[in-house]
User: Fold these one by one.
Assistant:
Number 1:
Amino acid sequence: MSGLPDTAQCRSLLADGSRLTVTATRRPRLDRADVKCGAAGAPMLAERMLTVVRLARLTEACFDSRDQVVISIDRRPGPHERDWELAVVLADRMVRGVYRPQAPVLANGWSDEWQLGRVTGRDAIDAPPHALLGGPDGLAHLGMLTGQVDAAAAVATARAWFPLHSGGINDSLCWVEVSVYPLVREGGEEEDTIAVPGLDSTQQLAVRRALVGARHFDPRGLGRWRSVVRFGQRSFHGNSFELALVMADRLARGREFMPRGRIIATGCSSAWHAGRVDPVDCCEPKCALMLRHAVAGDRILLPAAWAGAIEALVQAAAEKGASVACIERIGII
Amino acid sequence: MKAIFKWPERAAPADMSALGAAVIAMPVHSGCAVPAACVAVVIDSGGRTRRAQEGSRLQLAPGEAAYAFHPGPYTVDLVPFGAAPELGLRVGFAVDSADPRVAQQRFDLFLASEAHGPLALAHFCQAVEAALQRALAQGNLELPPCTSLTEWNAFRAGFNQLLYMRFGVTVEECVPVDLGESVDFAAVLMARTLEQAPVAQLSLSLPLPRALAAASDPLSDARALRRLFLELPCVMCALRLAVLPPGQLLFRRHQDLLRRLDLVSLAVSSMPALELSAPGVALAKHEQLRRIGHSRRAVAALDEAWALLARVQIAGAQQLDALFDDGARIVANLEYDLGERRMVATENQPA
């Protein structure tokens, strides 16, 4: 358990606009309870926190009885407020290294089904843009933090990340999300079943072309799905998002191996129907950007043409626990 | 009239035709001959096993049970990720001939501790799939998207070793396959849509889910304890035999793990009965449920211990540190769950 923090903090907005801080600390267990929750003067709140944390832990793959996690909350939310629940769950995951965010987290959300990892909704209205918000239009499932598909939901949604590089301080990773659900009435053009809300028409066309091409490469991709594609940011140029888009689509359709963390990919293609991946510009700055944001378990996918220039990236990523692959074409192996 | 010339009781010969196809192993009675192309494993009351070759007639002492198994090969399709049902691995495996270097074959131990009645191929396949999915979810095996050939070979080595250590079977071939003909993910999603609508209204009147019913079965506690009782000594034995690079620190950690496993094994063999809190004092029903839950979790930790042994055997020297840390976690989980299984919560009882 080296390299893990002893303390983690997560913030949340209250209904009156003030912020509360959830602090989680980890210490050796020594025959104590696995989780201990504290809220000054509010035993019922502490009880609810304990229930939420225990339920959310049921969705984790690895059980460790060696540590005790102590969680405290610094303000008292109103008697019927539940929007702090997501912050408590995330703080508990951060202190054990299950979730490793890059920046301080502000999270709002509540759920009736923490045992399934679902986040049912949120109450916060005027949250800042960087906030992590639960609910169907935001973070609907805890696995979505790493882009995973909810294994019990009726709509399969997966995310992949791609680097947004402009050479400034705003360089970051942007996610692309593909949701698919079964097409009831068959027939018609595949491009008509793909909705891309929020982009201008040129980019919509590019997204549809890439998706249709990649599904054509797949023996049973066409004519089965209605799809919605969303992007984390709306203003970007170029077509280096295409590989991330295609990978998210394959994840959502259940036809790709799952990474433990996120997929971070950059690449485009002029022939998706053949499954080929072509190189894009700006190899070095993009690699540096991806490396900076990668955490343990992440999978970095690059075009095969970059294979000669990235030994340092492979080394550094392996030290962080992420893995890198240069791919010539999509598909299994 | 005294029955002097009574014929020995002879059971009707069971139908053994499914062996080698849909069934891997079947119980056989005393006096029956071992079917052709099969091997019999005789298990005595203490869990020790011996083998009998095909064609021989089984003579079982009281308290002994015997299984005949067909060595295969078998072919199954596994789904490595629950969320990706259209992508599978086609795995061909067989039960190898006996390895003369070990005192007890792993597959014999598997039959002794986990088989109850006929061992169906489908049931075995579920267990293998669960072990594979768990190893992938915990990051002990890696099968990332766009797997390269090196990564695939590393996966294969780990998977072969996992199946050998955990189930005693040898993987002969393993290839990724498209399960699109048999599984339609779109239809699965559609079925989920249809079943989610009424559940919201009927949630109170629904019967207990099957998993919950199985979780409260007292038999599962007995089976879990039997597995721990039989397998923990073998886990210790395998860990003791693990080849480690020289070094005082590593030696100490190794000895420490063995010592703690010894105590865990002792705790299992002196475990109190499920339904008693003290001699002659019955235990409340909800406390029994709690005990069942903890023994089931202890068995999950035992499965992780076998998976860890498989990793130790193919690990390089630089991975041993992480592996021993994981071993300490597994042993701590075993200690914790067995301690909870033994404990009687006194504060809840009326004073």
Number 2:
Amino acid sequence: MSTRKFGPNDTVDFIVVGSGAAGGVIARELSQAGNTVLVLEQGPRYTAADFKHDELGYWFNNAITNSPQANPQTFRKTAADTAKRTEGIPALIYARLVGGSSNHFTANFWRFHEVDFKERSLLGPIEGTSFADWPIDYAELEPYYTKVEWEVGVSGLAGASPFDPPRSKPYPMPPLPVKSSGVLLERGARKLGLHPFPAPMAIASEPYRGRAACAHCGFCIGFGCEMQAKSSTLYTMIPEAEATGRCEVRSESYVSRIEVNDRNRVTGVAYFDKDKREHFQKARAVVVSANGAESARLLLMSADARHPDGLANSSGLVGRNLMFNTYAQANAVFEHELNEYKSVQVTRIVHDFYQSDPKRGFYGGGGFDGRIGPNPIGWAMFQPPPERAWGAEFKSLIEKMPRAMISATHGTSLPLESNRVDLDPELKDAWGLPAMRVTYKDHPDDLANARFLQDRATEVLQAAGAQEVWKDPVEDSTIGVHLLGTCRMGNDPKTSVVDRYHRTHDIRNLFVCDGSSLVTSGRGQPTMTIQALAFRAGDHIARFAKRGDI
Amino acid sequence: MKNNDTSRRDFLRASGGALGAAWLGIQWSDLAVAAGHAHEAAAGRIDHEFKVLTPAQARDVEAIAAQIVPSGDTPGAREAGVVYFIDHVNAGIYARNAPEFLAGLAAFQQEFATSHPGPGQFADLEGPAQIAYLKSVEKTPFFGAMRFLTVAGLLALPSYGGNEQKLGWKLVGFVDQHVWSPPFGYYDKDYPGFEPYPKAARS
């Protein structure tokens, strides 16, 4: 817990909005560089002892994620449709607690490849999209990827994948022990001439920097880690930021507005405490790392007379180009037991189809993995095909859980200006703030790519000797958990929201860094890149602060 | 009200990368959060008192649940005490949705009575007739809710009031244990180790 406490009249050097994958890293980097930092997190603070193996609570009752009641959203496919309140499942899902979604994520930790940063130049424009190169390349980000692996803690096997981009250092920890799903994925893929390899995971395979190694309990996806083995910022970056004595993490503090003065400088933020009382905290600069949905919403909610369309929005792109990483899945049952409910979700992945290939007839690429999806209730609710949803056939299928696995595919989502987060004109949240309105429809190439990857995954499962394989239908996404692109990075203020250092083009002392910064979606598993960007942003912003350039 | 199948597919897609809350069938509240982990029954021992359902309602709820996950060579919803879970959550974590659930149940019973004049209720039908009747209503939100509640009552933590003696977990081969070590399954027992690719294979 924070020992440093700032008073209501203090002016801190930085307010960081959000304590997740990006906010945690930036708070640590800025406070270690000598700045005072106040982190405002909308959710509560839990310790490892608070997390439970409670599938009903965590997966179905929003135990740690945004709630459809308190944090309502509306959804529509296109601007021509009427947005309807999402009833049970929010359109955009994120964890709402200190450490953010780095608590409940699966911890797949792929680096993006060189191609991800310059694909627009390599492939040319794609009509109707905002497909663009990044203002930085892989080489510029590589030292920060390495920093994430060592400072945050990633397990993996350097050089195992023939497709991996260059790296300056091996992983600090060996890969986690292979599971039966990994052995089978590897067996099938090798038979087909592919190159499966050990999955890099942000989970400690051995004791690391004062944290315990994974105990293989199996409750990763959707759960907080009770062992502190998952490298969430709750256990890694946040305590290190607090240890500087210059950082306070204030939980249950929900930022409603960023204030800008008549000199076009941010002066601080207004936020609600846990009792819904509003406060104002002064700051010399603000870094918004509230996730790819909430960061855009906060900028839009902070509109004032000088910025009627929201802060940092002279381009009109705040909230636009929302990307998810299109997903598909193939399910399989084998002869013997896999017991996939044990240990981390993923131990082997396939990246042979990472590159886009014009011969396929569509843009896109990606990878797929072997795993279970996920624990008993989820398996019973989601895996059976509709004709086996109840009755004796349903029962016989759920009894096969120990012999089952899935292959999940992770692919590109093209940036489209029409896919966006904005403010619902009518619906309000539990604090009276405008609810998030989500507009999203996959580009046809994204769906074609997802089906292509699903077919390749299906072939691998068959080659591995599965007794039964069935595919889930691939249809338009209405839910996103990878929240990307809504404040994209770029050199041109007309076509981007933040510059190459995450400074907003419009307001000198306002920065945005999280999933919203991504220019393209990569092929999935974006948290590694979000954290590399955060380390890089923290590095540069600390330098700006040091030389008075804020 | 979300379409049942759409919800399921959406959730599947979402669950690949991370995950979050999900619902099938009826709109549930987030009261589990507010309620923390307060449960109606002590862990491992089910409270066999009904708090919400009348005896006639409980008979039908149990009969429906027992068709969703039938008994047989292995235990089903009936043996796992699913009906008690459904009753208890309607008085507890899902109390906010209880009126909607009970209205769905009332409509189910009313429609059954209309199509089956005379004495008796759904639970009194023979098994095959129950299955045939449920097929005619399997697209309704009420049935979707029953399916979700049956699965949850079978497989959630026993402290929620179902999964009696962990029979549901036994059924699906899940063992609730916090520490495991390899080998985890049959196929990883004799894994020889990762064999690197020859340099020539690298692109």
Number 3:
Amino acid sequence: MTFAQAMLLAVLQGVSELFPISSLGHTVLVPALLRWHIDEGSESFLAYVVVLHLGTAIALIVFYRSEWLALAGAFARSIVRGRFSDDPHEHLAWLLVAGTIPVGILGVLLQSAVKALFASPIPVSLFLAANGVLMLFGERLRQRELAAGHPGYRTLAALRARDGVLVGLAQSLALLPGISRSGSAIVAGLLRGLHHDDAARYAFLLATPVIFAAALLEIPALFAPEGRPALAQAVLGCAVAGVTAYASVAFLTRWFRRNNLAPFAWYCLVAGLLSFVLFVTKVIA
Amino acid sequence: MKQFALALAAVFLIVAVLYWTGHAYPPGVHIKHAIVSVVLALGSLVWFRFMSAEGAR
């Protein structure tokens, strides 16, 4: 992998991890479309991807730093006390725990098998298109509910543990390369009655421990023989992924105050179908 | 249930140590499994704490 390719991958990771367009899907598709000859199964490539994920997770923690501090404090107080209270931060912290459980279980059990089965360009193209359909479908269902006189939006404080688990289950769809973690979680949040703004906030908070844990669990890859990426490249890649992820989350939190998932959904649908045609017709081998 | 939660935490901790030191099956160090076992042990301890507080009220 050349230095330019490494930096482009870092930018791609920082943007696509948080935009609802699937980072894993883009990590498979873009090198194939640009005809890069990279062995994506090699230890050094996996180690580099771990570093990029760490950068993204750190950016998310920094962006939501005051919220994480409040959540951690409320969570710890509830454990010390041994009972739940009405504190909204405590409620959100336990909601995040409830949402993380299905992702954790399914991730540990299925990630390697699913990745081995589907992480090649043709299935990824189809999953990316499916990701677009999923988001358009979610938006349409939500619009229909609102048009039918459904009683407005729920807040995060009104969600129950069951809702948190459902959003977590939806987020688990992102084990399929091409399905977006934030996209599926936002759609699930919308279908549980949240506004785009709150659905995105919950999705980003829920994604933070998952991305961080996934990176931590893969850290042994950094120390495997042949697994060490060039130090300067790794440090710079981590920083670039972090900065672009920070800019992405800052943009998206503003975007979802007034806008919806539709542009990202259409992008995924068109990009997925176009890639599928290019790979199937062997225009790109 | 309190005792069960505590026993579960102890079992998960032992499993974590076995995975970490490479004495679990299949042989070899399984760091991911060890970390997951530690998380499950912590979860069991939180459950124990909530049960204890409920018993004290």
